[in-house]
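REVIEWER CHECKLIST
Item 1: Sequence provided? yes
Item 2: Single chain? yes
Item 3: Sequence as submitted:
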Amino acid sequence: MENQKSNWSDKILRVAGVIILACFSKYVLGIGLLLIAFAVAIGLVLLLCLPLILFYLDKQFKKEQEEFQKEYKEFLSRVNGSKFFFYNSRRSSFEFAKDTVVPQLQPTTNIVFVDGEDIDCGPDSKFVSHMLYGVKERKGFPYLIKIVNEEPVDYSVNHLFYNTMAGKKPLTPLLQRIDAFYEAPAVSE
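Item 4: Structure as written out by the authors:
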C-alpha cells in the first residue's frame, strides 16, 4: 500500500510540477517575446533616426570646421609677418637644434618644439599645429614657416641641418639659408 501511496503522491507531484512549469513558461515566453519586440522596436526607431543623427553630426562637424577655419584665418592675420622654426624630439638632433641652432636664430623667430604629435605654444597651439601639419612637402624637421599675406609658406632645412650636424661643418651656411628663407619674398603659386 505504501508503494501505491508513494506512486499516487509521485503522480500528483509530477502533475503539479507540469502545471506550474506550464504557467511559468507561459510568462517566461511572454516576457521573452515582449523583450524581443521591444528590441526590434528600438532597432527600427534607431534605423529610422540614423539618417537624422548622421545629418545632425555632419552639420555639427561642418559648423565646427567653418568656425575653426574662421579662427585660423584670424590667427594668420594676427601673426602676419611672423617666422616659425619647428624642431622635434629626435634624439640624434634635439640637442644640436636646441643648443646650437636655436640660440643663433633671430630673436623675432618663434621657436616651436614638437614632441611627438604634441605642440605646446600657448593658446594658439591648435593653429600652429594645423599650420605645421599643413606643410606641403614633408622632407623632415626642422621646418621653417613664415606668414606672408596671411598665408603660411613652409620650407625644410632637413638636409643642410643634418649635413652640418653630422659632418661637423660650420653653422654659418645653415643660418644663412634660414635667414634667406625668412627674408625672401613669397613666390606665388
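Item 5: Key structural point noted by reviewer: Residues 144 and 178 are 8 Å apart (CA to CA).
Item 6: Recommendation: ____
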